[in-house]
Amino acid sequence: MGSSGCDPTLRSSLCIGSPSDIGMAWLEETEDNKPTRSMLGLPDFIWPGVSPPCYNRLSNEVLRMTEANNVPPEPTLGTQHVLIPSQNTPPVVQGETEEHCLEQVQSMVVGEVLSDVNKACKLLNIAPDPLDWSCIHVYKWLLWTEHLYKLPQISMLFKELNGRDLCSLTEADFRQRSSQYGEVLYAHLDIWRSAAAMKEQGPPEAHPSKANDNSWCNYPSQPIHLWQFLRDLLLKPHNYSRSIRWLNKEKGIFKIEDSAHVARLWGIRKNRPAMNYDKLSRSIRQYYKKGIIRKPDVSRRLVYQFVNPV
DNA sequence: AATTAGGATTACC
DNA sequence: GGTAATCCTAATT
Protein backbone atom coordinates (compact mmCIF):
# COMPACT_ATOMS: atom_id res chain seq x y z
CA MET A 1 0.00 0.00 0.00
CA GLY A 2 1.14 3.47 -0.65
CA SER A 3 1.28 5.10 2.67
CA SER A 4 4.33 7.02 1.70
CA GLY A 5 2.77 8.26 -1.44
CA CYS A 6 6.07 8.22 -3.19
CA ASP A 7 6.23 4.77 -4.59
CA PRO A 8 5.73 5.05 -8.31
CA THR A 9 4.56 1.50 -8.59
CA LEU A 10 1.62 2.36 -6.42
CA ARG A 11 0.44 5.11 -8.66
CA SER A 12 -2.08 2.99 -10.37
CA SER A 13 -3.93 6.12 -11.22
CA LEU A 14 -1.10 7.65 -13.11
CA CYS A 15 -1.97 8.10 -16.71
CA ILE A 16 1.21 9.57 -17.97
CA GLY A 17 3.36 6.68 -18.94
CA SER A 18 5.80 8.97 -20.54
CA PRO A 19 4.99 12.61 -20.93
CA SER A 20 6.09 12.58 -24.52
CA ASP A 21 3.35 10.31 -25.73
CA ILE A 22 0.75 12.67 -24.44
CA GLY A 23 2.32 16.01 -24.66
CA MET A 24 -0.18 18.75 -25.18
CA ALA A 25 -2.33 16.69 -27.45
CA TRP A 26 -5.25 16.89 -25.10
CA LEU A 27 -5.52 20.55 -25.86
CA GLU A 28 -7.02 19.66 -29.19
CA GLU A 29 -9.01 16.72 -27.99
CA THR A 30 -12.74 16.72 -27.82
CA GLU A 31 -14.83 15.38 -25.04
CA ASP A 32 -15.36 12.24 -27.06
CA ASN A 33 -11.81 11.29 -26.51
CA LYS A 34 -12.81 11.27 -22.91
CA PRO A 35 -9.76 12.82 -21.48
CA THR A 36 -9.69 11.64 -17.93
CA ARG A 37 -10.35 14.03 -15.18
CA SER A 38 -6.69 14.48 -14.96
CA MET A 39 -3.76 14.12 -17.24
CA LEU A 40 -1.78 13.60 -14.12
CA GLY A 41 -1.91 11.33 -11.19
CA LEU A 42 -5.21 12.61 -10.00
CA PRO A 43 -7.60 11.20 -12.53
CA ASP A 44 -10.74 11.25 -10.52
CA PHE A 45 -9.36 13.07 -7.63
CA ILE A 46 -10.87 16.41 -6.99
CA TRP A 47 -8.91 18.58 -4.72
CA PRO A 48 -11.76 20.39 -3.15
CA GLY A 49 -12.24 24.02 -2.49
CA VAL A 50 -9.69 23.78 0.19
CA SER A 51 -8.39 27.18 0.84
CA PRO A 52 -6.18 27.18 2.61
CA PRO A 53 -5.10 23.58 2.25
CA CYS A 54 -5.92 22.44 5.67
CA TYR A 55 -5.15 19.12 7.25
CA ASN A 56 -7.87 19.33 9.77
CA ARG A 57 -10.63 20.01 7.37
CA LEU A 58 -9.25 17.43 5.04
CA SER A 59 -8.97 14.98 7.88
CA ASN A 60 -12.54 15.45 8.88
CA GLU A 61 -13.71 14.91 5.37
CA VAL A 62 -11.62 11.83 4.94
CA LEU A 63 -12.67 10.50 8.28
CA ARG A 64 -16.29 11.01 7.49
CA MET A 65 -15.82 9.18 4.24
CA THR A 66 -14.00 6.38 5.95
CA GLU A 67 -16.78 5.99 8.42
CA ALA A 68 -19.28 6.12 5.61
CA ASN A 69 -17.79 2.91 4.33
CA ASN A 70 -15.63 4.46 1.66
CA VAL A 71 -18.41 5.50 -0.60
CA PRO A 72 -17.34 8.78 -2.06
CA PRO A 73 -20.04 11.17 -3.07
CA GLU A 74 -20.57 12.18 -6.62
CA PRO A 75 -18.21 14.79 -7.89
CA THR A 76 -19.66 18.12 -7.08
CA LEU A 77 -17.67 21.07 -8.13
CA GLY A 78 -17.48 23.92 -5.80
CA THR A 79 -18.31 21.96 -2.71
CA GLN A 80 -16.11 20.91 0.09
CA HIS A 81 -15.72 17.28 -0.79
CA VAL A 82 -12.63 15.25 -1.10
CA LEU A 83 -13.00 12.55 -3.65
CA ILE A 84 -10.65 9.69 -3.52
CA PRO A 85 -11.04 6.89 -5.99
CA SER A 86 -11.02 3.44 -4.58
CA GLN A 87 -7.70 2.55 -6.07
CA ASN A 88 -6.18 5.46 -4.27
CA THR A 89 -7.65 4.60 -0.95
CA PRO A 90 -5.22 2.65 1.15
CA PRO A 91 -6.61 -0.47 2.67
CA VAL A 92 -7.40 0.13 6.26
CA VAL A 93 -5.52 -2.24 8.47
CA GLN A 94 -8.00 -3.96 10.63
CA GLY A 95 -7.96 -2.82 14.18
CA GLU A 96 -6.13 0.32 13.39
CA THR A 97 -7.48 3.43 14.94
CA GLU A 98 -8.78 6.34 12.99
CA GLU A 99 -5.55 8.18 13.59
CA HIS A 100 -3.57 5.59 11.73
CA CYS A 101 -5.89 5.77 8.83
CA LEU A 102 -5.89 9.52 8.78
CA GLU A 103 -2.17 9.78 9.15
CA GLN A 104 -1.84 7.38 6.29
CA VAL A 105 -4.30 9.07 4.02
CA GLN A 106 -2.95 12.50 4.76
CA SER A 107 0.56 11.44 3.95
CA MET A 108 -0.54 9.91 0.76
CA VAL A 109 -2.75 12.74 -0.33
CA VAL A 110 -0.18 15.44 0.22
CA GLY A 111 2.48 13.37 -1.42
CA GLU A 112 0.28 12.70 -4.38
CA VAL A 113 -0.66 16.31 -4.80
CA LEU A 114 2.92 17.53 -4.70
CA SER A 115 4.05 14.88 -7.06
CA ASP A 116 1.26 15.70 -9.44
CA VAL A 117 2.02 19.38 -9.40
CA ASN A 118 5.55 18.44 -10.38
CA LYS A 119 4.38 16.31 -13.22
CA ALA A 120 2.03 19.00 -14.42
CA CYS A 121 4.93 21.41 -14.52
CA LYS A 122 6.86 19.11 -16.77
CA LEU A 123 3.88 18.33 -18.90
CA LEU A 124 2.95 21.94 -19.42
CA ASN A 125 6.52 23.12 -19.44
CA ILE A 126 5.83 25.82 -16.92
CA ALA A 127 7.51 26.83 -13.71
CA PRO A 128 6.19 25.38 -10.49
CA ASP A 129 5.75 28.76 -8.93
CA PRO A 130 2.74 30.61 -10.35
CA LEU A 131 4.49 33.88 -9.62
CA ASP A 132 6.94 33.06 -12.39
CA TRP A 133 4.33 32.49 -15.04
CA SER A 134 3.89 34.56 -18.14
CA CYS A 135 0.50 35.15 -19.73
CA ILE A 136 1.05 32.11 -21.90
CA HIS A 137 1.89 29.99 -18.90
CA VAL A 138 -1.20 31.18 -17.11
CA TYR A 139 -3.28 30.31 -20.13
CA LYS A 140 -1.77 26.84 -20.33
CA TRP A 141 -2.43 26.29 -16.68
CA LEU A 142 -6.02 27.46 -17.05
CA LEU A 143 -6.66 25.12 -19.96
CA TRP A 144 -5.15 22.29 -18.03
CA THR A 145 -7.24 23.06 -14.98
CA GLU A 146 -10.36 23.13 -17.10
CA HIS A 147 -9.59 19.65 -18.20
CA LEU A 148 -8.64 18.53 -14.75
CA TYR A 149 -11.90 19.58 -13.21
CA LYS A 150 -14.01 19.32 -16.32
CA LEU A 151 -14.81 22.96 -16.15
CA PRO A 152 -16.39 24.87 -18.95
CA GLN A 153 -14.28 27.31 -20.87
CA ILE A 154 -13.49 29.82 -18.23
CA SER A 155 -9.93 30.47 -19.23
CA MET A 156 -10.89 33.55 -21.22
CA LEU A 157 -12.10 35.13 -18.04
CA PHE A 158 -8.54 35.26 -16.86
CA LYS A 159 -6.76 36.11 -20.06
CA GLU A 160 -4.12 38.76 -20.28
CA LEU A 161 -2.96 37.96 -16.79
CA ASN A 162 0.52 36.88 -15.94
CA GLY A 163 1.26 34.74 -12.95
CA ARG A 164 1.82 37.62 -10.61
CA ASP A 165 -1.45 39.19 -11.62
CA LEU A 166 -3.24 35.91 -11.16
CA CYS A 167 -1.81 35.44 -7.70
CA SER A 168 -2.79 38.93 -6.71
CA LEU A 169 -6.43 38.14 -7.26
CA THR A 170 -8.40 37.38 -4.16
CA GLU A 171 -10.83 34.57 -3.82
CA ALA A 172 -13.58 37.15 -4.19
CA ASP A 173 -12.02 38.23 -7.47
CA PHE A 174 -12.15 34.68 -8.70
CA ARG A 175 -15.72 34.35 -7.64
CA GLN A 176 -16.59 37.56 -9.36
CA ARG A 177 -15.18 36.30 -12.63
CA SER A 178 -16.92 33.00 -12.30
CA SER A 179 -19.45 32.67 -9.57
CA GLN A 180 -19.72 28.97 -10.16
CA TYR A 181 -16.15 27.88 -10.64
CA GLY A 182 -14.06 30.69 -9.28
CA GLU A 183 -13.74 28.99 -5.97
CA VAL A 184 -12.43 25.76 -7.44
CA LEU A 185 -9.98 27.61 -9.60
CA TYR A 186 -8.77 29.67 -6.70
CA ALA A 187 -8.33 26.56 -4.57
CA HIS A 188 -6.38 24.85 -7.29
CA LEU A 189 -4.12 27.84 -7.70
CA ASP A 190 -3.67 27.87 -3.98
CA ILE A 191 -2.39 24.32 -4.07
CA TRP A 192 0.24 25.30 -6.58
CA ARG A 193 1.31 28.25 -4.52
CA SER A 194 1.54 26.13 -1.42
CA ALA A 195 3.52 23.51 -3.26
CA ALA A 196 5.90 26.12 -4.61
CA ALA A 197 6.34 27.60 -1.16
CA MET A 198 7.09 24.21 0.25
CA LYS A 199 9.59 23.44 -2.44
CA GLU A 200 11.69 26.38 -1.47
CA GLN A 201 12.08 24.74 1.90
CA GLY A 202 11.93 28.16 3.35
CA PRO A 203 9.14 29.47 5.47
CA PRO A 204 6.04 29.14 3.38
CA GLU A 205 5.70 32.62 2.02
CA ALA A 206 2.07 32.22 2.47
CA HIS A 207 -0.64 34.67 1.95
CA PRO A 208 -1.48 36.69 4.99
CA SER A 209 -4.66 34.84 5.75
CA LYS A 210 -2.77 31.62 5.85
CA ALA A 211 0.12 32.61 8.01
CA ASN A 212 -0.89 30.22 10.71
CA ASP A 213 -1.31 27.26 8.50
CA ASN A 214 1.73 25.12 8.96
CA SER A 215 0.14 21.91 7.87
CA TRP A 216 2.08 21.89 4.67
CA CYS A 217 5.41 22.50 6.32
CA ASN A 218 6.01 18.96 7.42
CA TYR A 219 5.84 17.10 4.20
CA PRO A 220 5.10 13.61 5.46
CA SER A 221 6.30 11.76 2.45
CA GLN A 222 9.82 13.02 2.65
CA PRO A 223 12.37 10.57 3.91
CA ILE A 224 12.28 10.78 7.63
CA HIS A 225 14.54 9.56 10.37
CA LEU A 226 13.16 7.49 13.18
CA TRP A 227 14.18 10.02 15.78
CA GLN A 228 12.36 12.73 13.85
CA PHE A 229 9.30 10.57 13.60
CA LEU A 230 9.27 9.92 17.33
CA ARG A 231 9.79 13.57 18.07
CA ASP A 232 6.89 14.48 15.80
CA LEU A 233 4.62 12.06 17.60
CA LEU A 234 5.69 13.52 20.90
CA LEU A 235 4.90 16.99 19.67
CA LYS A 236 1.35 15.96 18.90
CA PRO A 237 0.28 14.90 22.37
CA HIS A 238 -3.33 15.37 21.53
CA ASN A 239 -3.17 12.53 19.06
CA TYR A 240 -0.56 10.20 20.43
CA SER A 241 -0.11 10.68 24.14
CA ARG A 242 -1.63 7.30 24.74
CA SER A 243 1.17 5.73 22.74
CA ILE A 244 4.17 7.91 23.41
CA ARG A 245 4.61 10.85 25.76
CA TRP A 246 7.12 13.02 27.46
CA LEU A 247 8.21 12.16 30.94
CA ASN A 248 10.40 15.23 31.01
CA LYS A 249 10.18 17.34 27.95
CA GLU A 250 12.95 19.69 29.01
CA LYS A 251 15.38 16.82 29.35
CA GLY A 252 14.00 15.06 26.29
CA ILE A 253 12.97 12.01 28.25
CA PHE A 254 10.04 10.16 26.81
CA LYS A 255 8.24 6.90 27.30
CA ILE A 256 6.75 4.62 24.72
CA GLU A 257 3.48 3.63 26.30
CA ASP A 258 2.27 1.41 23.51
CA SER A 259 5.22 -0.10 21.74
CA ALA A 260 3.14 -2.03 19.25
CA HIS A 261 1.18 1.06 18.31
CA VAL A 262 4.24 3.20 17.79
CA ALA A 263 5.86 0.48 15.75
CA ARG A 264 2.78 0.20 13.62
CA LEU A 265 2.76 3.93 12.98
CA TRP A 266 6.42 3.78 12.05
CA GLY A 267 5.75 0.91 9.72
CA ILE A 268 2.98 2.82 8.07
CA ARG A 269 5.16 5.85 7.59
CA LYS A 270 7.97 3.82 6.10
CA ASN A 271 5.70 1.47 4.26
CA ARG A 272 7.06 -1.48 6.21
CA PRO A 273 4.06 -3.57 7.19
CA ALA A 274 6.24 -6.04 9.05
CA MET A 275 7.62 -3.40 11.38
CA ASN A 276 7.43 -4.22 15.06
CA TYR A 277 8.88 -2.92 18.25
CA ASP A 278 11.74 -5.37 18.18
CA LYS A 279 13.00 -3.88 14.97
CA LEU A 280 12.09 -0.33 15.82
CA SER A 281 13.97 -0.54 19.10
CA ARG A 282 16.98 -1.94 17.31
CA SER A 283 17.02 1.20 15.22
CA ILE A 284 16.73 3.33 18.31
CA ARG A 285 19.74 1.52 19.74
CA GLN A 286 21.74 2.48 16.71
CA TYR A 287 21.30 6.04 17.91
CA TYR A 288 23.21 5.33 21.09
CA LYS A 289 26.65 5.59 19.59
CA LYS A 290 25.54 8.38 17.28
CA GLY A 291 24.54 10.47 20.23
CA ILE A 292 21.00 11.10 19.14
CA ILE A 293 19.02 9.06 21.64
CA ARG A 294 20.21 7.31 24.75
CA LYS A 295 18.85 5.57 27.76
CA PRO A 296 18.24 7.93 30.66
CA ASP A 297 20.58 7.79 33.63
CA VAL A 298 18.19 5.54 35.45
CA SER A 299 17.29 3.02 32.81
CA ARG A 300 13.66 2.15 32.65
CA ARG A 301 11.71 -0.02 30.34
CA LEU A 302 10.49 1.76 27.23
CA VAL A 303 11.99 5.03 28.37
CA TYR A 304 14.49 6.85 26.21
CA GLN A 305 16.03 10.26 26.11
CA PHE A 306 16.94 12.62 23.32
CA VAL A 307 20.54 13.67 23.77
CA ASN A 308 19.69 17.09 22.38
CA PRO A 309 16.26 17.97 23.63
CA VAL A 310 14.06 20.37 21.75
C1' DA B 1 6.77 -12.59 28.07
C1' DA B 2 8.47 -8.43 27.06
C1' DT B 3 12.33 -5.69 26.84
C1' DT B 4 17.26 -4.67 26.24
C1' DA B 5 21.76 -4.95 24.08
C1' DG B 6 24.38 -5.44 20.21
C1' DG B 7 26.45 -8.39 16.15
C1' DA B 8 25.66 -9.65 11.41
C1' DT B 9 23.52 -9.32 7.06
C1' DT B 10 20.60 -7.35 3.70
C1' DA B 11 17.91 -3.68 1.44
C1' DC B 12 17.28 0.77 -0.12
C1' DC B 13 18.17 5.68 -0.98
C1' DG C 1 28.13 5.14 2.33
C1' DG C 2 24.48 5.96 5.53
C1' DT C 3 20.19 4.61 7.51
C1' DA C 4 17.25 1.44 8.49
C1' DA C 5 15.11 -3.39 8.13
C1' DT C 6 15.73 -7.93 9.25
C1' DC C 7 17.34 -11.68 11.90
C1' DC C 8 19.74 -13.37 15.52
C1' DT C 9 21.62 -14.76 20.46
C1' DA C 10 21.92 -13.71 25.08
C1' DA C 11 20.92 -11.26 29.10
C1' DT C 12 17.74 -8.67 31.98
C1' DT C 13 13.38 -7.19 34.05
Keywords:
310 residues; mainly alpha; 10 helices; 40% helix; 5% strand; elongated; disordered N terminus; DNA-binding
Could you please describe the fold and organization of this structure?
With 310 residues, this protein is mainly alpha-helical. The chain contains 10 helices and 4 strands, in the order ααααααααββααββ. The protein has helices at residues 55-67, 98-124, 135-149, 163-168, 171-177, 182-199, 226-234, 237-240, 259-270, 277-290; strands at 244-248, 253-256, 293-294, 303-306. A 4-stranded antiparallel sheet has the order 1-2-4-3. β3 and β4 form a beta hairpin. α1 (55-67) crosses α2 and α5 packs antiparallel against α6 (182-199). It is elongated, with a radius of gyration of 22 Å. The model is unreliable at 1-96 and 201-219 (pLDDT under 50). It binds a DNA duplex (13 and 13 nucleotides) through α10.
Spans where pLDDT lies below 50 across 5 or more residues: 1-96, 201-219
Proportion of beta-strand residues: under 5%
- What is the rounded Rg? 22 Å
What topology, given as strand order, has the largest sheet?
1-2-4-3
**Class based on secondary structure composition and strand pairing:** mainly alpha
Basic shape: elongated
Largest sheet: 4 strands, antiparallel
The H/E string reads HHHHHHHHEEHHEE
Query: Average pLDDT value?
Result: 67
Contiguous helical run count: 10
Distance between the termini: 33 Å
- Indicate the percent of residues in helices: 40-55%
Number of strands: 4
